[in-house]
TrEMBL record:
A Pfam family this chain is assigned to: Y1_Tnp
Superkingdom of origin: Bacteria
Gene Ontology molecular function: DNA binding; transposase activity
Residues in Transposase IS200-like domain copies: 10-129
Protein name per Swiss-Prot or TrEMBL: Transposase
GO biological-process terms attached to the record: DNA transposition
Length: 135
């Protein structure tokens, strides 16, 4: 496994982010998804986030990303949702008819950690620490 590093730590932080369109409106096509992805890539630089994978359905997007330990994910997500809502509504005027207020995204989101060993394996490893090996 390749690990990331900074001055004082070694880490691997992978996240699966799911963002849903307000009212589950079916408005995401390839053009809008591509623009949402470009906006994501622009904003993630300021938060030390790396986009690994992006895909969409008609009413939500799935994002695989990596971050650093000091990344404030909730601030990044709010900044992204705010900026992308504003830009999409400006660049795709027909969106204003389908989503009548300033919002593009639902207020909620799903953020999951991914990768690494299963929890049971980590739990057993931690439980075994400090025990002497019997030879």
């Amino acid at each position: 496994m390749d690990l990331d590093t900074n001055n004082h730590s070694v880490f691997k932080l992978n996240y699966h982010l799911i963002l849903v369109v307000k009212y589950r409106k079916k408005v995401i096509d390839d053009a809008i998804s591509n623009r949402l992805k470009q906006i994501f890539e622009d904003i993630c630089l300021n938060y030390h986030i790396t986009l690994k994978e992006w895909n969409h359905d008609i009413d939500h997007v799935h994002v695989l990303l990596t971050a650093k330990p000091n990344t404030e994910l909730s601030k990044f997500i709010n900044a992204y949702k705010s900026a992308s809502s504003r830009r999409i509504k400006n660049e795709f005027p027909n969106m204003r008819q389908q989503l009548w207020k300033q919002y593009f995204w639902s207020q909620s989101y799903c953020l999951l950690t991914v990768g690494g060993a299963p929890l049971e394996v980590v739990k057993k490893y931690i439980e075994s620490q400090g025990q002497k090996e019997v030879r």
